[in-house]
Write a structure and sequence with these properties.
The protein is of the alpha/beta class. The chain has three domains: 252 residues, Thiamin diphosphate (ThDP)-binding fold, Pyr/PP domains (Rossmann fold); 154 residues, Thiamin diphosphate (ThDP)-binding fold, Pyr/PP domains (Rossmann fold), CATH 3.40.50; 136 residues, Rossmann fold (3-Layer(aba) Sandwich). The chain is 40% helix and 15% strand. It contains 26 helices and 20 strands. The strands form four sheets. Strands 10-9-11-12-14-13-18 form a seven-stranded mixed sheet, with helices on both faces. A six-stranded mixed sheet has the order 1-2-3-6-5-4, sandwiched between helices. Helix 6 packs parallel to helix 7 and helix 14 packs parallel to helix 20. The N and C termini lie far apart (78 Å). About 5% of the residues have low confidence.
């Protein structure tokens, strides 16, 4: 009977003592651990299955207690966590108080950056190497970046590679090529890498071309043409690495990313090569688990499942109300049916944004730019300038990467680009890298942009229709949560007009976003206790409905603003500014939202409760305001 190895691995040093057969056994045990986790909770799955051998090989060849390793992006970090001493805590991953689903320097010295966005690994690995060389603390220290083919088109990657080539630093970039991001990769680089899959192994194209050309006689222009043709033919034969070679990297590959012994040999070979090196590794997303290989999109972050006696997959998720993502995608679909000018752009998030049916039914008006958010926004600006009505459907946390394009290409030009910000607010177990809590603050700083948030499902489609008819940029934010319906007679969506659910004399909740439903529930509980509290569904942050909000401040005993976003410069700040400009007292105003710190991972409901944004927290905040001495003295 084989002894289970994974529980015995407290560090990579212990793993290096294993035989080749034991390392293969360890790979199988890591995959089984991944399956156990996903049976319990949603977690990144297919991407982690695909890097098991690569992770083992890296930690076998390098000593990352001194060497440097950056995983790009960090959702493929699970095998790395398992072999760096975190196996005993692995069952806690992505649960409140447990291991993070991304690298976390607070967990381990083996995690150097908290990486949740794609593309920055080459830059940070280069920075680490440059600093190590300057400080001369360990001149033999290696720097390694693992980057996926989905992240490769990000502009910052090529900025970093260009810089690395100029600096001639000893940097190893491992291109983990599995033909996928979250969805299948797109664009010219995807086609380029596809050609590399049929090219032979290559180690340093420039050297081979030079060897050939130096042995041919040079006799005039005709020979010069022949040499050019030969060079082009050689380039074509060794197509896979030419782009990287021309950028100043020594290209090696492609190699099989699931041949553990071969991987270790190649890593040993490139370990001490001088200058920047790119090792091209082919992996299979979902490797070792047939269902994930067959449908890596579905198994990127699958719902919990179990395997029956026939090893068939049975998903355990319960049916519920549609998510806001589905409600938004349905509204986008309807808008595209109604108006041929409407098109939709996404940055490698077709599956996450539930745009598959749109891609299928409106292929000419669907654009996936890959992980290139800045380009997506500028691209949309160009389309809007020519008369289209583009929708940029993107996660809130990823929109931050296009900050300058929102400013320069959209807001400054006052172009009708609509931003649908999915995952706005707390993203639960994805944690601080993915919580979409900053968009309110930075978007409201730009002139021309209309900033909206639906109070519930009823608001979503009318807000989208309003945005698409508005002659300027507009944003609509909604959370990663099941949609809610507040029973009411909803008013039409009009520019800068709030929807008053009910007025209250003792106090008023003013909600910006889908915490509106919790405010309604809290107000009902307070009213039963004899405290008359009203609720306003603000709908707009920019422009603010100052008339309605100032009335609430003047006529209610207190006002509590509620938002699922950062308090710094957010909706509550806008209310305070409006009160100040109207010269109204502000001691009766309290702001509830995300405090000035990064919020850890946990379920959305757990995090809302911790922050006082659940019904109990809202009720407690209102009662505290009623009992506030300054308010009592004003009454």
């Amino acid at each position: 009977m084989k002894i289970e190895l994974l529980p015995l691995i407290g560090s990579p040093q212990e793993m290096r003592a294993l035989s080749d057969d034991q390392l293969l056994q360890l790979a199988d045990e890591i995959r089984e651990s991944l399956c156990r986790i996903v049976a319990d909770r949603p977690a990144h799955f297919a991407s982690n299955l695909g890097v098991v051998e690569l992770c083992i090989a890296l930690h076998s060849v390098f000593d990352f207690e001194t060497d440097r390793l950056i995983w790009d992006t960090g959702h493929q970090i699970y095998p790395h966590k398992l072999v760096t001493g975190r196996y005993p805590l692995f069952d806690t991953i992505r649960s409140k108080g447990g291991l993070m689903g991304y690298p976390n320097p607070d967990e381990s010295d083996f995690d150097l950056f908290m990486t949740g966005h794609a593309g920055a690994s080459v830059s940070t690995a280069l920075g680490l190497k440059a600093a190590d060389d300057l400080l001369r603390e360990d001149e033999g220290r290696k720097s390694v970046a693992v980057i996926g083919d989905g992240a490769l088109p990000s502009g910052i990657v090529f900025e970093a590679m260009n810089n690395a080539s100029g600096l001639k630093k000893n940097l190893l970039v491992i291109l983990n090529d599995n033909q996928m991001g979250i969805c299948p990769r797109v664009g010219g680089l995807a086609s380029y890498l596809d050609q590399a899959r049929v090219a032979p192994f290559y180690d340093g194209l420039k050297r081979d071309v030079s060897w050939l050309l130096n042995r041919l006689p040079v006799v005039g222009r005709q020979t010069e043409k022949v040499l050019t043709d030969i060079k082009s033919a050689v380039k074509g034969f060794f197509h896979g690495g030419m782009l990287f070679e021309e950028m100043g990297f020594r290209y090696i590959g492609p190699i099989d990313g699931h041949d553990l012994a071969g991987l270790r040999s190649y890593l040993e070979m490139v370990k001490d090569v001088q200058g920047p090196v790119l090792l091209h590794v082919f992996t299979e997303k979902g490797h070792g688990f047939a269902p994930a290989c067959e449908d890596p999109v579905k198994f990127h972050t699958p719902a919990p499942f179990e395997r029956n006696e026939d090893q068939e997959i049975v998903f355990l998720g319960k049916a519920g109300s549609p998510a806001y993502t589905n409600v938004a995608s349905d509204a986008i679909y309807q808008a595209m049916q109604n108006d041929e000018r409407v098109c939709v752009l996404t940055a490698a998030m077709c599956a996450g944004n539930k745009l598959g049916q749109i891609r299928e039914d409106f292929p000419e008006r669907f654009f996936d730019t890959g992980i290139c958010e800045g380009h997506a926004v500028a691209f949309a600006a160009g389309m809007a300038k020519s008369g289209m009505r583009p929708i940029v459907d993107i996660y809130s946390t990823f929109l931050q990467r296009s900050f300058d394009q929102i400013f320069q290409e959209v807001a400054l030009q006052n172009l009708p680009v609509t931003f649908c910000l999915d995952r706005a607010g707390l993203c639960g177990p994805d944690g601080p890298t993915h919580h979409g809590v900053f968009d309110n603050t930075y978007l409201r700083t730009f002139p021309n942009i209309v900033v909206m948030a639906p109070g519930d499902e009823t608001d979503v489609a009318p807000m989208l229709d309003f945005a698409l008819s508005h002659d300027g940029p507009a944003s609509i934010r909604y959370p990663k949560a099941n949609a809610e319906l507040v029973k009411r007679t909803a008013t039409p969506v009009e520019l800068g007009k709030a929807d008053v659910y009910r007025w209250g004399t003792d106090g008023t909740f003013i909600a910006f976003g889908t915490l509106f439903a919790r405010c309604v529930e809290a107000a009902a509980s307070l009213n039963e206790a004899g405290i008359d509290v009203g609720v306003i569904n603000a709908r707009f942050l920019r422009p603010l409905d100052t008339q309605t909000i100032l009335r609430a401040i003047e006529e209610s005993g207190f006002v509590i603003t509620v938002e699922e976003s950062t308090l710094n410069g957010g909706f509550g700040s806008a209310v305070l500014e409006a009160a100040n400009e109207a010269r109204l007292p502000t001691d009766c105003i309290r702001r509830l939202g995300i405090p000035d710190r990064f919020i850890e991972h946990g379920s959305r409901d757990e995090l809302l409760a911790d922050l006082g944004l659940d019904v109990a927290g809202l009720v407690a905040a209102a009662k505290a305001m009623v009992e506030c001495p300054s308010l009592v003295s004003h009454s």
